[in-house]
Amino acid sequence: MGDIMHTVTEVFNKVDYAVLGIMTAVLIATLLTPMFKLTNSGPGRSVSIILCVYFYARWQMNVMNIPAKVLDPTTEQRIEFYRITRNVYMDFSCFLAALFIISAGYLRGHIAQLQKQLDDASPSQKKRD
Question: Among 45, 59, 77, 112, whose CB has the most other CB atoms within 10 angstroms?
Fold first, then answer.
């Protein structure tokens, strides 16, 4: 049973690392390109919110599974402690990345909207220049 759970955990970790890489690329694209329009739309926000909920749940499950420290741990106990705490930090990082994608998309959209309002409100400024 322990081997099956270890294999399932490894598969989830590989998926989490892939999702973290994709979210990092999306975050960079949201900050530096017009892709913020996609991440600020309804479907883009929905995907990010689903990822937030997923990684928050995984983070909380892993926090609850952190083994207690013992006085004289064996090598297996040390490895298990390292593995679970690594998963906690990775899931928390993914959770924060998903939140940051939502925030960056919203703020870039708000800035674009304000710039458009400013451009529409002052046509006399353009004529003087």
Answer: 59
